[in-house]
Design brief:
11 helices; about 300 residues; single chain; four-stranded parallel beta sheet; five-stranded parallel beta sheet; alpha/beta
């Protein structure tokens, strides 16, 4: 099959040694590798003719730590939301959520909320809730235990961790604002929130760009918050001004649809055109400075935690 292929695209576990053995000889079609685990350890740089990155932070880290300059960018492929849902009011009634409540939504794996500092994600949520009544935060991923249970009790149920859910579309449907996870952002969930016309609030992790939201659609200076107060103020503005949050959500959804849906094939075809009919090569000259920086230390601490 390899002999008859024009291009080989690898989407495998980043620590899998089989592709290195399979494509460890020169000749044949070019090999493209999808960098879907850019923040963790992976192997195979020597066989990659073109590294497909889903965000600039992944491309930057691969250049510094993997000495890979043969790269391309491809937005995450998304689909339009399923619109065959009951109305927002009916779903809220079934979930016993007040119709006039402003619902904040967060969706991420539980480990993405872990911290080794003094500030936890729930502290940010509490700061927002202290300033605004009739606001409910639904957190999908973490279970209602430990610190999350304490937060649920202290806010009298206004912070509601509900664990892993299979049918998450209905939660996007009833939400008003998407608040990204921290210390580790959840890009796909945030983009899905934007597709559902929710404004997205994300606190950038300036100790580790790799753990932050990093997408071509979310690079505005006025939304790159580096402290809790500015971040909480922005969420507060979205809560207080319905017209503003609807405008933010509508504009974001248009940009996401354009790049992550309608133009996605153009990005992919551009990558194929870039490698053309070049033969597969082996790349063994890796001159990487063995100097640890803040990004390296932060990633190591987070993964240990």
């Amino acid at each position: 099959a390899y002999e008859w292929a024009d291009i080989v695209v690898l989407h495998v576990h980043m620590f899998d040694p089989i592709p290195i053995m399979a494509f460890g000889v020169e000749g044949g079609p070019p090999v493209l590798f999808m960098n879907h685990g850019d923040h963790v350890f992976w192997i195979g740089t020597s066989i990659i003719d073109n590294l497909i990155n889903f965000r600039e932070a992944g491309e930057e880290l691969s250049g510094i730590r993997r000495n890979t300059c043969r790269t391309s960018y491809l937005p995450l492929p998304l689909e339009l939301p399923d619109i065959k849902f009951e109305t927002k009011s009916i779903i809220r009634d079934k979930l016993c959520i007040k119709q006039d409540a402003v619902v904040l939504l967060t969706i991420a794996s539980a480990y993405k909320f872990k911290t080794f500092g003094k500030i936890h994600y729930v502290d940010i949520l509490k700061r927002v809730l202290d300033r605004h009544n009739d606001v409910l935060v639904i957190v999908i991923g973490p279970d209602n235990t430990g610190l999350w249970q304490k937060a649920n009790e202290e806010t009298k149920g206004r912070i509601l961790p509900i664990g892993v859910q299979q049918d998450i579309e209905k939660y996007y449907a009833i939400a008003d604002i998407y608040v990204d996870s921290y210390m580790f952002g959840s890009l796909t969930s945030a983009l899905d929130g934007g597709l559902n016309k929710l404004p997205v609030a994300a606190l950038q992790n300036y100790n580790s760009r790799t753990l932050s939201i990093d997408d071509i659609l979310y690079d505005s200076d006025d939304k790159s918050f580096n402290n809790m107060e500015d971040f909480a103020n922005y969420i507060g503005k979205l809560i207080s001004d319905k017209n503003y949050r609807e405008k933010e959500g509508e504009e974001l959804s248009i940009r996401i649809e354009k790049n992550h849906i309608y133009k996605w094939c153009d990005y992919l075809n551009g990558i194929y055109k870039k490698v053309g009919e070049k033969a597969h090569n082996i790349y063994l000259n890796h001159n990487i400075e063995n100097l640890l920086g803040n990004e390296d230390l932060f990633l190591a601490l987070f993964q240990k935690k």
